[in-house]
Amino acid sequence: MHNPQLNKHGELQHLLTLDGLPKAIIQRILDTAASFVSVSDREVKKVPLMRGKSVFNLFFENSTRTRTTFEIASKRLSADVINLNISASSTAKGESLLDTIDNLSAMHADMFVVRHAQSGAPYLIAKHLTETGQDHVHVVNAGDGRHAHPTQGLLDMYTIRHYKKDFSNLTVAIVGDILHSRVARSDIHGLTTLGVPEVRAIGPRTLLPGGLEQMGVRVFTDMNEGLKGVDVIIMLRLQNERMSGALLPSAQEYFKSYGLTPERLALAKPDAIVMHPGPMNRGVEIDSAVADGAQAVILPQVTFGIAVRMAVMSMLAAA
Asked: Which DSSP letter does residue 50 get?
Protein backbone atom coordinates (compact mmCIF):
# COMPACT_ATOMS: atom_id res chain seq x y z
CA MET A 1 0.00 0.00 0.00
CA HIS A 2 1.64 3.25 -1.11
CA ASN A 3 1.94 5.97 1.52
CA PRO A 4 0.52 9.15 -0.09
CA GLN A 5 3.04 11.21 1.91
CA LEU A 6 6.10 9.62 0.28
CA ASN A 7 7.35 9.77 -3.30
CA LYS A 8 8.56 6.70 -5.19
CA HIS A 9 12.05 7.10 -3.68
CA GLY A 10 10.58 6.97 -0.17
CA GLU A 11 11.22 10.67 0.44
CA LEU A 12 8.74 13.02 2.05
CA GLN A 13 6.46 14.43 -0.66
CA HIS A 14 3.69 15.85 1.56
CA LEU A 15 3.24 16.06 5.32
CA LEU A 16 -0.37 15.11 6.04
CA THR A 17 -0.30 13.08 9.27
CA LEU A 18 2.09 11.32 11.65
CA ASP A 19 -0.09 8.20 11.43
CA GLY A 20 1.93 5.71 9.40
CA LEU A 21 4.89 8.05 8.87
CA PRO A 22 8.05 5.91 9.14
CA LYS A 23 10.10 6.34 12.32
CA ALA A 24 13.23 7.07 10.26
CA ILE A 25 11.54 10.04 8.57
CA ILE A 26 10.30 11.46 11.88
CA GLN A 27 13.82 11.16 13.28
CA ARG A 28 15.27 12.83 10.20
CA ILE A 29 12.86 15.76 10.59
CA LEU A 30 13.90 16.14 14.24
CA ASP A 31 17.61 15.94 13.36
CA THR A 32 17.18 18.51 10.57
CA ALA A 33 15.29 20.82 12.94
CA ALA A 34 18.14 20.55 15.46
CA SER A 35 20.57 21.85 12.81
CA PHE A 36 18.48 25.03 12.52
CA VAL A 37 18.43 25.81 16.24
CA SER A 38 21.43 27.82 17.40
CA VAL A 39 23.47 26.66 20.36
CA SER A 40 21.70 29.08 22.69
CA ASP A 41 18.28 27.54 21.78
CA ARG A 42 16.93 31.07 21.59
CA GLU A 43 17.50 31.71 17.91
CA VAL A 44 16.67 29.96 14.68
CA LYS A 45 19.20 30.29 11.86
CA LYS A 46 18.48 31.87 8.48
CA VAL A 47 19.41 29.67 5.51
CA PRO A 48 18.91 30.03 1.73
CA LEU A 49 17.50 26.51 1.20
CA MET A 50 14.23 27.69 -0.41
CA ARG A 51 15.36 30.84 -2.21
CA GLY A 52 13.18 31.34 -5.29
CA LYS A 53 10.42 29.01 -4.01
CA SER A 54 6.89 30.21 -3.29
CA VAL A 55 4.98 29.06 -0.22
CA PHE A 56 1.24 29.77 -0.13
CA ASN A 57 -0.36 29.82 3.33
CA LEU A 58 -3.96 28.69 2.79
CA PHE A 59 -5.76 29.16 6.07
CA PHE A 60 -9.45 28.32 5.67
CA GLU A 61 -9.72 28.43 9.46
CA ASN A 62 -8.47 31.14 11.82
CA SER A 63 -5.01 30.82 13.26
CA THR A 64 -2.52 33.37 14.45
CA ARG A 65 0.16 31.25 16.07
CA THR A 66 0.48 28.47 13.50
CA ARG A 67 0.27 30.80 10.52
CA THR A 68 2.87 33.14 12.00
CA THR A 69 5.35 30.34 12.74
CA PHE A 70 4.95 28.96 9.20
CA GLU A 71 5.50 32.44 7.82
CA ILE A 72 8.63 32.97 9.93
CA ALA A 73 9.89 29.47 9.00
CA SER A 74 9.39 30.18 5.27
CA LYS A 75 11.23 33.49 5.54
CA ARG A 76 14.10 31.91 7.49
CA LEU A 77 14.43 29.48 4.56
CA SER A 78 14.47 32.52 2.21
CA ALA A 79 11.22 31.49 0.46
CA ASP A 80 8.60 33.90 -0.89
CA VAL A 81 5.50 33.73 1.31
CA ILE A 82 1.99 34.49 0.13
CA ASN A 83 -0.68 34.65 2.85
CA LEU A 84 -4.23 34.19 1.63
CA ASN A 85 -7.20 35.02 3.80
CA ILE A 86 -9.38 32.44 2.12
CA SER A 87 -12.50 32.92 4.21
CA ALA A 88 -12.79 36.41 2.72
CA SER A 89 -11.91 35.40 -0.83
CA SER A 90 -12.72 32.99 -3.63
CA THR A 91 -14.32 30.14 -1.67
CA ALA A 92 -16.68 32.69 -0.14
CA LYS A 93 -17.71 33.47 -3.71
CA GLY A 94 -18.54 29.82 -4.31
CA GLU A 95 -15.34 28.63 -5.98
CA SER A 96 -14.53 25.02 -5.13
CA LEU A 97 -11.46 24.15 -3.07
CA LEU A 98 -9.77 22.36 -5.97
CA ASP A 99 -10.46 25.22 -8.42
CA THR A 100 -8.74 27.53 -5.96
CA ILE A 101 -5.77 25.12 -5.81
CA ASP A 102 -5.53 24.92 -9.63
CA ASN A 103 -5.54 28.69 -9.94
CA LEU A 104 -2.82 29.09 -7.32
CA SER A 105 -0.73 26.30 -8.88
CA ALA A 106 -0.88 28.25 -12.14
CA MET A 107 0.81 31.09 -10.23
CA HIS A 108 3.86 28.82 -9.78
CA ALA A 109 3.26 27.72 -6.20
CA ASP A 110 5.83 25.27 -4.85
CA MET A 111 4.13 24.51 -1.54
CA PHE A 112 0.72 24.84 0.07
CA VAL A 113 0.44 25.09 3.85
CA VAL A 114 -3.21 24.21 4.50
CA ARG A 115 -5.39 24.62 7.56
CA HIS A 116 -9.00 23.57 7.10
CA ALA A 117 -11.98 22.89 9.35
CA GLN A 118 -12.80 19.72 7.37
CA SER A 119 -10.82 16.60 8.26
CA GLY A 120 -9.12 15.26 5.14
CA ALA A 121 -8.97 18.51 3.12
CA PRO A 122 -5.13 18.42 2.80
CA TYR A 123 -5.35 14.79 1.56
CA LEU A 124 -7.88 15.83 -1.06
CA ILE A 125 -5.54 18.59 -2.27
CA ALA A 126 -2.49 16.27 -2.35
CA LYS A 127 -4.43 13.60 -4.26
CA HIS A 128 -5.70 16.19 -6.74
CA LEU A 129 -2.18 17.52 -7.38
CA THR A 130 -0.95 13.98 -8.12
CA GLU A 131 -3.90 13.17 -10.39
CA THR A 132 -3.44 16.39 -12.38
CA GLY A 133 0.31 15.91 -12.85
CA GLN A 134 1.30 18.69 -10.44
CA ASP A 135 3.63 16.51 -8.38
CA HIS A 136 6.15 19.30 -7.95
CA VAL A 137 3.76 21.08 -5.53
CA HIS A 138 3.97 19.93 -1.90
CA VAL A 139 1.24 20.05 0.76
CA VAL A 140 1.77 20.59 4.48
CA ASN A 141 -1.19 19.96 6.76
CA ALA A 142 -1.34 22.82 9.29
CA GLY A 143 -4.36 21.27 11.03
CA ASP A 144 -7.46 19.64 9.55
CA GLY A 145 -10.66 19.40 11.60
CA ARG A 146 -10.28 17.01 14.52
CA HIS A 147 -8.00 14.82 12.48
CA ALA A 148 -4.32 15.81 12.58
CA HIS A 149 -1.83 18.59 13.25
CA PRO A 150 1.44 16.91 12.25
CA THR A 151 3.84 19.85 12.64
CA GLN A 152 2.56 20.49 16.17
CA GLY A 153 3.02 16.78 16.89
CA LEU A 154 6.58 16.97 15.54
CA LEU A 155 7.48 20.06 17.54
CA ASP A 156 6.14 18.32 20.63
CA MET A 157 8.37 15.31 19.82
CA TYR A 158 11.32 17.67 19.32
CA THR A 159 10.67 19.37 22.67
CA ILE A 160 10.47 16.03 24.50
CA ARG A 161 13.66 14.80 22.83
CA HIS A 162 15.44 18.07 23.66
CA TYR A 163 14.69 17.81 27.38
CA LYS A 164 14.55 14.03 27.86
CA LYS A 165 17.09 12.90 25.22
CA ASP A 166 15.53 9.49 24.70
CA PHE A 167 11.99 8.20 24.18
CA SER A 168 12.54 4.59 25.27
CA ASN A 169 11.82 4.91 29.00
CA LEU A 170 9.29 7.73 29.24
CA THR A 171 5.74 7.97 30.54
CA VAL A 172 3.86 10.77 28.80
CA ALA A 173 0.43 12.05 29.86
CA ILE A 174 -1.86 13.98 27.51
CA VAL A 175 -4.50 15.80 29.54
CA GLY A 176 -7.83 17.38 28.70
CA ASP A 177 -10.07 17.67 25.66
CA ILE A 178 -8.70 14.75 23.67
CA LEU A 179 -11.97 14.19 21.82
CA HIS A 180 -11.70 17.44 19.83
CA SER A 181 -7.92 17.63 19.69
CA ARG A 182 -6.03 17.03 16.45
CA VAL A 183 -2.85 17.76 18.43
CA ALA A 184 -3.55 14.83 20.78
CA ARG A 185 -3.97 12.45 17.83
CA SER A 186 -0.73 13.60 16.22
CA ASP A 187 1.10 13.38 19.56
CA ILE A 188 -0.15 9.83 20.17
CA HIS A 189 1.00 8.67 16.72
CA GLY A 190 4.37 10.40 17.16
CA LEU A 191 4.98 9.04 20.66
CA THR A 192 4.04 5.44 19.81
CA THR A 193 6.10 5.50 16.58
CA LEU A 194 9.15 6.79 18.46
CA GLY A 195 8.83 3.98 21.00
CA VAL A 196 7.48 5.68 24.13
CA PRO A 197 6.50 2.72 26.35
CA GLU A 198 3.59 4.39 28.12
CA VAL A 199 1.26 7.05 26.75
CA ARG A 200 -1.61 8.09 29.03
CA ALA A 201 -4.77 10.01 28.19
CA ILE A 202 -6.39 11.84 31.09
CA GLY A 203 -9.74 13.59 30.94
CA PRO A 204 -13.45 13.45 31.71
CA ARG A 205 -15.24 10.59 29.97
CA THR A 206 -17.20 13.04 27.80
CA LEU A 207 -13.93 14.36 26.30
CA LEU A 208 -12.22 11.01 25.68
CA PRO A 209 -12.80 9.46 22.24
CA GLY A 210 -13.38 5.73 21.83
CA GLY A 211 -10.55 3.60 20.46
CA LEU A 212 -7.71 5.09 22.54
CA GLU A 213 -6.78 1.68 23.99
CA GLN A 214 -6.44 0.30 20.45
CA MET A 215 -3.92 3.09 19.77
CA GLY A 216 -1.87 1.76 22.69
CA VAL A 217 -2.94 4.43 25.19
CA ARG A 218 -3.78 3.96 28.88
CA VAL A 219 -6.91 5.90 29.78
CA PHE A 220 -7.49 7.67 33.12
CA THR A 221 -10.49 9.71 34.23
CA ASP A 222 -8.84 10.52 37.57
CA MET A 223 -6.20 13.24 37.11
CA ASN A 224 -4.28 12.44 40.31
CA GLU A 225 -4.06 8.77 39.41
CA GLY A 226 -3.02 9.53 35.82
CA LEU A 227 -0.22 11.95 36.70
CA LYS A 228 1.60 9.62 39.12
CA GLY A 229 5.24 9.23 38.07
CA VAL A 230 4.97 10.78 34.59
CA ASP A 231 7.96 12.39 32.82
CA VAL A 232 6.04 14.65 30.45
CA ILE A 233 2.65 16.36 30.77
CA ILE A 234 1.01 17.74 27.63
CA MET A 235 -1.94 19.97 28.56
CA LEU A 236 -4.64 20.63 25.96
CA ARG A 237 -6.99 23.57 25.83
CA LEU A 238 -10.75 23.11 25.86
CA GLN A 239 -11.83 23.37 22.23
CA ASN A 240 -15.04 25.25 22.96
CA GLU A 241 -15.41 26.20 19.31
CA ARG A 242 -15.65 22.50 18.34
CA MET A 243 -18.00 21.40 21.10
CA SER A 244 -21.65 20.92 20.32
CA GLY A 245 -23.85 20.73 23.38
CA ALA A 246 -22.68 20.88 26.97
CA LEU A 247 -19.94 18.32 27.53
CA LEU A 248 -18.80 20.00 30.76
CA PRO A 249 -20.61 21.62 33.69
CA SER A 250 -18.40 24.76 33.74
CA ALA A 251 -14.83 25.99 33.36
CA GLN A 252 -14.50 26.22 37.15
CA GLU A 253 -15.69 22.64 37.62
CA TYR A 254 -13.29 21.50 34.93
CA PHE A 255 -10.35 23.25 36.61
CA LYS A 256 -11.25 21.65 39.92
CA SER A 257 -10.99 18.16 38.44
CA TYR A 258 -8.53 18.52 35.56
CA GLY A 259 -6.62 21.80 35.98
CA LEU A 260 -2.86 21.42 36.35
CA THR A 261 -2.00 22.98 39.72
CA PRO A 262 1.37 22.92 41.56
CA GLU A 263 -0.09 20.24 43.90
CA ARG A 264 -1.01 18.00 40.97
CA LEU A 265 2.29 18.63 39.21
CA ALA A 266 4.03 17.36 42.36
CA LEU A 267 2.53 13.89 41.66
CA ALA A 268 4.65 13.63 38.49
CA LYS A 269 8.41 13.00 38.53
CA PRO A 270 10.40 15.88 40.06
CA ASP A 271 12.00 16.65 36.68
CA ALA A 272 8.77 16.34 34.68
CA ILE A 273 8.23 18.95 31.96
CA VAL A 274 4.92 20.68 31.24
CA MET A 275 3.91 21.38 27.64
CA HIS A 276 0.95 23.15 26.02
CA PRO A 277 0.25 23.73 22.31
CA GLY A 278 -1.30 27.13 23.09
CA PRO A 279 -3.20 29.30 23.35
CA MET A 280 -3.51 28.61 27.08
CA ASN A 281 -6.63 29.21 29.14
CA ARG A 282 -5.12 30.11 32.51
CA GLY A 283 -7.33 29.02 35.38
CA VAL A 284 -9.21 26.57 33.12
CA GLU A 285 -6.73 23.85 32.19
CA ILE A 286 -3.56 25.25 33.76
CA ASP A 287 -2.70 27.30 36.84
CA SER A 288 -0.57 30.41 36.19
CA ALA A 289 1.93 29.21 38.80
CA VAL A 290 2.54 26.13 36.65
CA ALA A 291 2.40 27.91 33.27
CA ASP A 292 5.07 30.39 34.41
CA GLY A 293 6.96 27.88 36.57
CA ALA A 294 10.36 26.26 36.20
CA GLN A 295 8.99 23.00 34.76
CA ALA A 296 7.00 24.64 31.94
CA VAL A 297 8.66 24.52 28.49
CA ILE A 298 5.77 26.22 26.71
CA LEU A 299 7.77 29.13 25.25
CA PRO A 300 10.72 26.99 24.04
CA GLN A 301 8.08 24.88 22.22
CA VAL A 302 7.26 27.94 20.11
CA THR A 303 10.92 28.48 19.12
CA PHE A 304 11.33 24.78 18.34
CA GLY A 305 8.13 24.98 16.28
CA ILE A 306 9.81 27.36 13.83
CA ALA A 307 12.82 25.04 13.44
CA VAL A 308 10.60 21.96 12.97
CA ARG A 309 8.49 23.69 10.31
CA MET A 310 11.70 24.76 8.56
CA ALA A 311 12.88 21.14 8.64
CA VAL A 312 9.64 19.82 7.12
CA MET A 313 9.53 22.48 4.38
CA SER A 314 13.21 22.14 3.44
CA MET A 315 12.93 18.34 3.23
CA LEU A 316 9.83 18.63 1.02
CA ALA A 317 11.51 21.20 -1.21
CA ALA A 318 14.52 18.89 -1.63
CA ALA A 319 12.42 15.83 -2.55
From this structure: T
Report pLDDT digits (tens) over 116-170. 988 999 999 999 999 999 989 999 999 998 899 999 999 999 999 999 999 999 9
Closest by CA position to 258, among listed 239, 233, 289, 286: 286
- Is the bond preceding 150 in cis, omega lying within 30 degrees of 0? no
pTM reported for the whole predicted model: 0.93
Burial state string for 110-135 with b = 16 or more CB within 10 A and e = fewer than 16? bbbbbbbeeeebbbbbbebbeeeeee
Alpha helix (H) residue ranges in the chain: 23-36, 65-76, 97-105, 121-131, 150-164, 182-193, 223-227, 251-258, 262-265, 288-291, 298-318
Give the contacts of 111 (CB within 8 A, at least 6 positions apart). 53, 54, 55, 56, 79, 137, 138, 139, 140, 313, 316, 317
- Return d(Cα 45, Cα 43) in angstroms, integer: 6
Strands 217-220 and 198-202: parallel
CA 190 → CA 43, 73, 199, distances in Å? 25, 21, 11
| Residues of the chain above pLDDT 70, percent | 92
